[in-house]
Amino acid sequence: MGCWFSKKGQPVEEEQVEEAPKEYSWDKRKKEDKSKFYVRDVENIENSVCRNDVKDLPMTIENCKSCIIFLNGLCKEVTIDNCQDMKIITFASGSVYIRDSSNVELVTICGQLRTRDCRSMRLYLHCPTQPVIETTQKVTTYPLPIDFESIEEIVSDFGRSKFLNNWADIHDFGPVDHAGEPNWAPGTDVEIALKDVFDEFNDTFDSSPRLSLERTIFPQVAYPYPSAAEVKDEMVFALFAGEKSEDLATNCYYRVTGTLKKAKLIRSTAGKLSPLSLPTRAQKSLQLSEGSQIVILIFEGQLLATEISSEAEPGCSFFAFGDEARTEYDNFFNTSAFGNHNL
């Protein structure tokens, strides 16, 4: 008879099972395409770049020359390195850094702007903080009149007041030119200079939004800002406070300058401050807590209180007219610690 058992002392072969290779945490990481964070080595106008996939991304534009770059969306931050003879439109919730670049025209909305080792630039800015330039020469700065299809979404995501723009308050780290020429100066020809930029963008990118400065989302005011004594017509000092301050100020601005067309905006600012910095009468009428958001608009023109009474929401707004407006204007901008600060 056969036996189902192996003979005593005879080794039994065991089936070999292959072990799966160990998997570590770094093996599970998604392989990310890092090229989406860059625009690199682009040269000549026919190779210009328009991208619509940059929202919330940190972007770098580097080693580009003689072309146009349009990043359509609110980036996280933007770095521009070693670029020459460029026109760039980009928007960043954080900072825009420009380094080692020359002959650049930059259109931007950004939380902060810094340059280093740059020369010959035109900067069209909406920046709520003080821009900083270092070892940078021949810069012309402008406010930013701009309108296109998705600009309202970009400004809403940006989350800062449209009435606070420090385009003409540049902090220059130097060095100063030995010939005495200033490193930067505010421009006065924005409507001519920026129209040429927008026209070239529109001609280059057939499928991109049409850029325009005719109906700008950002209010435009003349610079330098006048003192109260220099304002020849009547003045209105309008202050809006609290969570609805931006909306109230926006409605007032469009009513006064658009619907009524009886006055022009000559200065504006926004930020957060102590109630003690407010006009005395405003302290009594506003329901204000420490750190409340404030928007201030200064109008010049024949504007009656009854014409903007619909904007005077109790506890959230304050208006002064005539001589009182002039006093509050000078007191606030000359002596207040409010300043031009980030929201």
Overview of the structural elements:
The protein is α/β, with parallel strands linked by helices and 343 residues long. It has 2 domains: 34-204, Pectate Lyase C-like (3 Solenoid); 228-335, Nucleoside diphosphate kinase-like domain (Alpha-Beta Plaits, 2-Layer Sandwich). The protein has 5 helices and 14 strands. It has helices at residues 151-158, 190-204, 245-260, 280-285, 322-335; strands at residues 38-40, 49-51, 58-62, 68-75, 77-81, 84-99, 102-126, 132-143, 171-172, 184-186, 235-241, 263-272, 293-301, 317-321. The strands form 2 sheets. Strands 1, 2, 3, 4, 5, 6, 7, 8, 9 and 10 form a 10-stranded parallel beta sheet that branches. Strands 12-13-11-14 form a 4-stranded antiparallel beta sheet, with helices on both faces. Strand 8, helix 1 (151-158) and strand 9 (171-172) form a beta-alpha-beta unit. The model is unreliable at 1-7 and 339-343 (pLDDT under 50). Belongs to the TBCC family. This is Oidioi.mRNA.OKI2018_I69.PAR.g12427.t1.cds. It comes from Oikopleura dioica (Tunicate).
In a nutshell, what does this entry contain?
This is Oidioi.mRNA.OKI2018_I69.PAR.g12427.t1.cds. This protein is α/β, with parallel strands linked by helices.
